[in-house]
Each structure stands twice: as C-alpha cells, then as structure tokens.
C-alpha cells in the first residue's frame, strides 16, 4: 500500500530534500510552502502522479484549511506529517531584537505547527500514523541571540513529548528531530539575505546537509510500527558544546 506524507516547508532545505527522498522511496507526497515557483519546480522534476503541492503561508489558518480541503482523494489518507516549515529571524540579543521578528517566529514555528497538527490528528489516529516535528538543538542549549528561536524550538520538543503522552494507545508515533548546524537557506533567511554571513558561518565546518536530515526522517518514518524515536539530536562532528559565559565587572 502506498503511504502518504505531508511535508511543510517543501520548497527548500530539509523539506525539499525530504520530498525527493520520500518520492524516491515510493511514498505519495504533499509538499507545502509559500514559494509556488519552487513547488512547480518539484512537480516539473518528479511529476504529479505521487506529488501534490499546495502553496500557502502556513500562518494563514484559512489558507491551510482550504489546502487540506482541496486535497485530491488519493492524497487524503495522510500517514505521516513532517512539521518542518520554520525559521529563525535575527541574531541580536533580546534587548535589541525586533518584536515583529519574534512574533513571526512564534506564529510560524509554534502556532502554525500546532494548528496543522490539530487539523490532521483525526486522520493520523485513524491511520495509526506518525508525526515528525523538526525542532532544533537550539531548544535545549541556549546561545546568545537564540532567545525566541530557541524558545519556539523548546516548545516543539516539549509539545512532541506531550503528544506522545496524549496519543498513548492510538499507535500514532511522535518524534522530535533536533538538528544542529546545517547548511540550507536557514542562515540566509535569518540574516535577511546576507550571503557573506551564511558563508562565514559554515566555512570549513562540514555542516549537516539537507540530505542528511531527509535520510533521518526517512529512517524514523520507516521504522517498524512498534518503535518510537522520542527525540533525536543530530549534529555535525565539527560542532560540540562550549560551556558557560562569565561576566566580570571591569
Ligand atoms: N538549518 C539549520 O541549521 C537548522 C537546524 C535545526 C533546525 N532547523 C529547522 O529546520 C526546519 C527547516 O529549515 P531549513 O534549515 O531547511 O531552512 P530553509 O532552507 O530556510 O527552509 C525553511 C522552509 O520553511 C518554509 N517556511 C518558512 N516560513 C513559512 C511560512 N510562513 N509559510 C510556509 N512555509 C514557510 C520555507 O518555505 P517558503 O519560504 O517557500 O514559504 C522553506 O521551505 C526549520 O523548522 C528550522 O528551524 C534548521
């Protein structure tokens, strides 16, 4: 039986790589994102027999429900949801941060994620499906300038664990995937398009690449149904822990 997966943020980075991985593995894929031309490029590359795309801003609840209502019959039986769409905006300390950027991160990484999950829970329960939430190590380990982004990802991780409790006995699996340094469009978005800043961050690091996380998602989604990966931290070898900072009066 062909299984169906909905992947948010399918236009770039982890999500785009996951779209290709699950299509290659024989799944039916629903890919979402705002950039319609990127979604069209996926259809051009993979065809539309097992790929359905829906262009909408995930913060727009009405648009989200319209996209779900418009799913073709063969894409309605969703077996897995990858809540991947998300972003970090800014690196400034809290006291200099832009409140609009904080709100956009909360609206995207938290509010939209719970809204879509809530909408799909009945289907996922009916099909004993899986929820794969893309969190971040930023949700566990604070760093300067991580403030609201880290807070949103801490929410994603804890929400995932809470879902596991609530879904006890339903057969639905829930995983929080927590990547570290990964080279995608993430830093370009975070720095409002500063390619130099993005290049500098990743230079010489051999970071995680999108295909690494796509492969992780594939592994988690295809485990035998009696196994649940609760949390999965994935870092490049080049990244580790830095300890605490201590301020001294001059
Ligand atoms: N790269 C890292 O270092 C890293 C590490 C840990 C966790 N993560 C997490 O991994 C996830 C994927 O990020 P990535 O690294 O692959 O970055 P990316 O290349 O920038 O991809 C982000 C995706 O999210 C989508 N998205 C953002 N805002 C959206 C909105 N309002 N409506 C619909 N879609 C939206 C984007 O699509 P459109 O722009 O087309 O809408 C894009 O497809 C995020 O949740 C991120 O927080 C990344």
TrEMBL record:
UniProt cross-references to Pfam families, sorted A to Z: adh_short
Keyword Oxidoreductase tagged: yes
Keywords, comma-separated and alphabetical: Oxidoreductase
One example GO MF annotation: serine 3-dehydrogenase activity
E.C. number(s) listed in UniProt: 1.1.1.276
Family statement drawn from the similarity comment of this UniProt entry: Belongs to the short-chain dehydrogenases/reductases (SDR) family.
Keyword set includes Protein biosynthesis: no
Source species taxonomy: Bacteria, Pseudomonadati, Pseudomonadota, Gammaproteobacteria, Lysobacterales
Name of the protein described by the UniProt record: Serine 3-dehydrogenase
Organism (species): Luteimonas terrae
Domain Ketoreductase: 3-184
Record SMART domains: PKS_KR (SM00822)
InterPro entries: KR_dom (IPR057326), NAD(P)-bd_dom_sf (IPR036291), Sc_DH/Rdtase_CS (IPR020904), SDR_fam (IPR002347)
């Amino acid at each position: 039986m062909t299984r169906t997966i909905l992947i948010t943020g399918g236009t770039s980075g982890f999500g785009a790589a996951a779209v290709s991985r699950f299509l290659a593995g024989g799944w039916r894929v629903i890919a979402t994102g705002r950039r319609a031309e990127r979604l069209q490029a996926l259809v051009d590359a993979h065809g539309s027999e097992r790929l359905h795309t829906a262009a909408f801003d995930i913060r727009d609840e009405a648009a989200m429900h319209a996209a779900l209502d418009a799913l073709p019959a063969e894409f309605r039986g969703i077996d897995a949801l990858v809540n991947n769409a998300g972003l970090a905006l800014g690196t400034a300390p809290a006291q200099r941060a832009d409140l609009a950027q904080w709100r956009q991160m909360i609206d995207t990484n938290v509010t939209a994620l719970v809204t879509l999950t809530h909408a799909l829970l009945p289907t996922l329960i009916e099909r004993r499906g899986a929820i794969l939430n893309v969190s971040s190590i930023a949700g566990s380990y604070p760093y300067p300038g991580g403030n609201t982004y880290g807070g949103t990802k801490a929410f994603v991780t804890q929400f995932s664990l809470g879902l596991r409790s609530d879904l006890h006995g339903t057969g639905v699996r829930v995983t929080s995937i927590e990547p570290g340094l990964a080279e995608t469009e993430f830093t370009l978005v975070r720095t409002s398009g500063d390619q130099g800043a993005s290049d500098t961050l990743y230079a010489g690091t051999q970071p995680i690449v999108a295909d690494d996380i796509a492969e992780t998602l594939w592994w988690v989604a295809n485990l035998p149904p009696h196994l649940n990966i609760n949390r999965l931290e994935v870092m490049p070898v080049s990244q580790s822990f830095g300890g605490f900072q201590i301020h001294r009066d001059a």
